[in-house]
Design a protein that fits this description.
CATH topology of one domain: Rossmann fold
Strand content: 15-25%
Oligomer: single chain
CATH architecture of one domain: 3-Layer(aba) Sandwich
Helix content: 25-40%
Structural class: alpha/beta
Number of helices: 18
Distance between the termini: 19 Å
CATH class of one domain: Alpha Beta
Radius of gyration: 22 Å
CATH superfamily of one domain: P-loop containing nucleotide triphosphate hydrolases
Largest sheet: 12 strands, mixed
């Protein structure tokens, strides 16, 4: 039985700042930021080893950890990203947990969660319309070849990756090549996630650069007089969504950037609301530690001013065994594939944060395989290793993990980053490529070099980097498993995300609009005569 959502809000002292949208979902007013009590709780990041295509249970781990902490008498909150309809209806699933460790109400969480995604789409597409209007009315406003801004839709739709707009004559605009991204990859989604308040949101939107003038100067959303309307569309979307776990633990669900093609973390606002009101805030970064966790350190923490007290690295026997080059089975395969786990632990430790390895147990894991995984994680430098069975047992299956995380959070942390703030974009990427991915060098393709020169000339040559690359490997190549070393890391292009405050580097064959699989999940979803939705999980 779900708890009334205003009771959940009351447990956090948010009773005056939560506005119910039905019995089990609420929006939290930004007034909660100014009305926060003194002090802050412990801040725990959940990430993972390089996953298989099915994922390794980070959200299950995050939710069950929060529930395990609550069972130990701690006031715990999970702060997670909003699900995208693309994977919910496509291949991977919605990322709302599963079994006895999931976000509730599940249907609301997976099927849009209000109008936040629509607001992001609308603001993004409004800017696209303004850009095309400017191109039509004033040919001197933009150098057409520099206009990179793309429309978005929250679906996996390969047919929209590359489109031609403006067909049908002069009245329909300028003919040019463009395309659509999935909403989670848009700069507006990143701006929503990184903004601290309405003023910050408005300022970031105004700094967005959809293209450049013929003289090389950036043309901003402010220059096009569209940023104010974009901010108005996003006003209510900046309020975090409050839901609950299967055991009634509070969950703030807000913003949804993917980690392989965007910055991969939930919102700064949600964390700032939760931390003064909780003993522990558990947040999650997408995909492996080379993606979401790296971006958490170099992008989200930079925007929020926060630092994590501990990092939980999720591993499974299945995922570690997947990285065995011989594709074997049993304990030997786990030992061979643990090279991937060791690389991730080393990367996280280099940030100066204690690492707890959480083994998400599956029913067919053998005691021998689990023993090897424990041994390998400990040898890699984790401060603790703990099994959990959150999927099957909820918070009761994660109390040992909760205890280990509490112990890991006891000491001070001095967060370190892989590169200096004033380093150039190539130097920052080189540091990530070598230290995190294991590359021997970086190769900039001609298109990327032209974009880099334009960005640097415009005064943005020292921005942080957000790397868009495959999630199936530490490298750019999904076939390179384990912990590859010495490869050449190829950069195809660079996009300026001036509003978000970084540049996006497109590596290898990564695409910012996914396609549907041969057996999409939407084929399993249906609505019964009594109004029940089935097939979501």
């Amino acid at each position: 039985m779900l708890r009334p959502i205003l009771d959940v809000a009351g447990d956090l002292g948010l009773g005056d700042h939560a506005f119910a949208h039905g019995p089990h979902r609420a929006k939290v007013s930004l007034d909660a930021l100014a009305d926060a009590p003194p002090g802050r709780g412990r801040y725990v990041l959940v990430t993972a080893v390089t996953p298989t295509g099915a994922g390794e249970g980070k959200t299950v781990t995050s939710l069950s950890l929060a529930m395990g902490l609550a069972r130990r008498g701690r006031r715990a909150v999970a702060a997670l990203r909003q699900s995208s309809l693309g994977p919910t209806l496509g291949m991977k699933g919605g990322g709302a947990g599963g079994g006895r460790a999931r976000i509730e109400p599940l249907e609301e969480c997976l099927l849009g969660l209000g109008h936040d995604l629509f607001a992001v789409e609308s603001a993004t597409n409004l800017l696209a319309a303004a850009v095309d209007d400017a191109l039509t009315r004033d040919a001197t406003r933009f150098e057409p070849s520099t206009v990179w801004w793309r429309r978005v839709i929250d679906m996996d739709d390969r047919g929209l990756r590359h489109v031609v707009t403006g067909l049908g004559g002069k009245a329909n605009g300028v003919v040019r090549e463009s395309g659509f991204d999935i909403t989670a990859a848009s700069e507006v989604m990143a701006v929503l996630a990184l903004s601290r308040d309405w003023a910050d949101l408005r300022a970031r939107l105004g700094r967005i650069v959809p293209g450049f003038a013929p003289d090389g100067s950036p043309v901003t959303a402010n220059d096009l007089h569209v940023a104010g309307a974009m901010a108005a569309l996003l006003r209510d979307a900046l309020h975090p969504n409050l839901l609950q776990t299967t055991e009634g633990t509070p969950v703030l669900v807000h913003a949804g950037p993917f980690a392989n093609i965007a910055f991969g973390n939930s919102s700064v606002v949600a964390d700032l609301v939760a931390l003064p009101r909780a003993d522990y805030v558990v947040t999650e970064a997408g995909f492996g530690a080379d993606l979401g966790a790296e971006k958490f350190v170099h992008l989200k923490c930079l925007a929020s001013g926060l630092s994590p007290d501990a990092v939980v690295l999720v591993a499974t026997v299945r995922a570690v065994r997947h990285h065995d080059p011989a594709k074997g089975t049993g304990p030997a395969a786990v030992a061979a594939g643990a090279v991937n786990l060791r690389r991730h632990v080393a990367t996280l430790r280099s940030y100066g944060v204690p690492v707890v390895v959480a083994i998400n147990r599956f029913p067919d894991d053998t005691p021998e395989e689990l023993a090897v995984l424990h041994e390998q994680a400990g040898a890699a430098g984790a401060v603790a290793v703990a099994d959990h069975t959150g999927f099957a047992d909820g918070g009761a299956g994660s109390e040992a993990l909760a205890e280990a995380v509490e112990a890991a959070c006891a000491g001070p942390v001095a967060l370190r980053r892989a590169y200096a703030a004033d380093a150039t974009i190539p130097d920052k990427l080189d540091a990530l490529a070598r230290q995190v991915y294991g590359a021997g060098s970086v190769r900039w393709e001609p298109t990327a070099l032209r974009s880099l020169e334009r960005i640097t000339k415009a005064g943005h040559g020292a921005l942080p980097v957000c790397v868009a690359k495959t999630n199936l490997s530490l490298s750019h190549d999904p076939t390179l498993l384990g912990a590859p070393e010495g490869f050449v890391f190829p950069v195809r292009d660079v996009r300026l995300y001036a509003g978000a405050g970084y540049v996006t580097v497109l590596a290898g064959e990564i695409m910012t609009m996914p396609g549907l699989p041969s057996k999409p999940k939407y084929a399993d979803i249906d609505l019964l005569p009594d109004g029940t939705v089935v097939g979501l999980v």
